[in-house]
Amino acid sequence: MDIGCGTGLVSITLSRQLPQAHVTGIDLFHGVSGNSPLQLTRNAQLENVADRVSFKQGNLLKIPFPDNSFDIVTAGSVLNELHSDELEPLSEKCRGEAFISCRTKHLLGDLMKIRIRMFSDYICPFCYLGKAIIDKLKNRFDIELEHVGIEIHPETPICGVDLRKYISETNEMYEKLRSRGRDYGLNFCDVRILPNSKKALILGEDLRRIGKNEEFTDAIFKAYFEDCLDIGKEEVIIALAKKIGLTKHDVENALADPLLQKIYANNCIEAREHDITGVPTFVINDEYTIVGAQNEQTFIELFEKIEKETMYRPNDETAPYIKKDSKKC
Predict the structure, then answer these.
(1) Out of 3.40.50.150, 2.60.40.10, 3.40.50.10950, 3.60.15.10, which CATH number does the structure's domain 2-110 have?
(2) DSSP one-letter code for 146
């Protein structure tokens, strides 16, 4: 039995994962837009499990089944609305001790995972902000983030250039960034140099291989945007790499590796193939694209949409997100 089944996502998923069992979902169905036992049964039919799952409307504290009716009882966020002394009657509906209190995403595993490929450059302040937004949302959604490094200013000389040659109103831009960044624990400094980021991006590809790409990404973003270090300098890159367990020799080998050069070049080719001309660009589940460090609510609305689509296939195509293969407008 799935207590507080809501949209029916957990109930339907359980019926797929436990083909020998029959799953019963129960909920008041009040205040859940468009949901009813009939609608959830239709969703189950779409997933070809209607013969193994059923839905009933009822009060969670007066469940219309005798004790010991179920082998497993599951419950998710509905438990947040119950007092501890109200949980015992629910567990009595279970024949054994398999009363599972869980968050939906933990029960569904990879099915609910939101996979994001983030095209970014270490010299882009909006990439730093965008990553911080995604990091915060990891507390709410099951997110798998992959960084895809591309240079937005490949023409920048190895020694770097004065940032003001590219952006005349740097003070105004960074004031806005500081204002938004505070909510995510970011403290932007007065950046004055625009480095060449190619070496750092190539090293990032090597670190992906050993599972340290994200750790390096966090370190290099902070070094540039909060400590005002020139991340185009090899000695700065080496110092940052040493903090996550690499040696100078490791870095030098990576930067000279022709395979990593090719992998990095392929990132740029992929970006062009997907018409990605700016960073950050978030390609989500190979279906949706969000361009730029949009406000947090934009990401939340899309992620919630994806979670709902995991359960059923809506016909509504009016969502305000860019389909991967559609034209931007």
Answers:
(1) 3.40.50.150
(2) E
